């Protein structure tokens, strides 16, 4: 039997609402975007792919259990363009977990970058975050 000393601290609810002005990665058509999201030590979760748009609407909710003493500095987001073979990174962003834990809920637009030091926006991602303590 598996046991752990970690105690549940709560649940983080993340809603990936929409994106706008995504940088074009397809040569012929618009992007087929989806979002990958995760915490520091969690497995990744993904939205569905929305075909042929640079302004997708997902309204997808994800749940992350938060356990005591687990590393969770940031909530990470990566937006990809799904291709027939593989995927192209459109952009990425993070939200500090402390910002979420300090507020009952957040509704924010975050700027996507495709490299950590790149200044040019690759679009914006609209997310909702809510921490519910146990």
From TrEMBL:
Transmembrane segments: none
Taxonomic superkingdom: Eukaryota
SMART domains named among the record's database cross-references: C2
GO terms assigned for molecular function: calcium ion binding
The entry's keywords: Calcium, Metal-binding
GO CC terms of this entry: membrane
Domain C2 per the UniProt entry, residue ranges: 1-110
This protein's record includes keyword Transferase: no
InterPro entries: C2_dom, C2_domain_sf
First and last residue of the signal peptide: none
Pfam families for the chain: C2
Protein name: Synaptotagmin-4
Species assigned in the record: Choanephora cucurbitarum
Gene: SYT4
């Amino acid at each position: 039997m598996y046991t752990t000393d970690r105690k549940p601290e709560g649940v983080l609810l993340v809603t990936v609402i929409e994106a706008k002005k995504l940088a074009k990665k397809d040569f012929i058509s618009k992007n087929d975007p989806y979002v990958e999201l995760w915490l520091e030590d969690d497995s990744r979760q993904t939205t569905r792919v929305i075909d042929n748009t640079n302004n997708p609407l997902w309204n997808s909710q994800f749940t992350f259990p938060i356990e005591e003493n687990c590393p969770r500095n940031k909530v990470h987001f990566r937006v990809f363009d799904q291709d027939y073979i593989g995927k192209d990174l459109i952009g990425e962003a993070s939200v500090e977990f402390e910002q979420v834990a300090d507020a009952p809920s957040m509704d924010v637009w975050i700027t996507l970058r495709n490299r950590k030091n790149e200044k040019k926006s690759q679009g914006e991602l609209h997310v909702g975050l809510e921490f519910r303590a146990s």
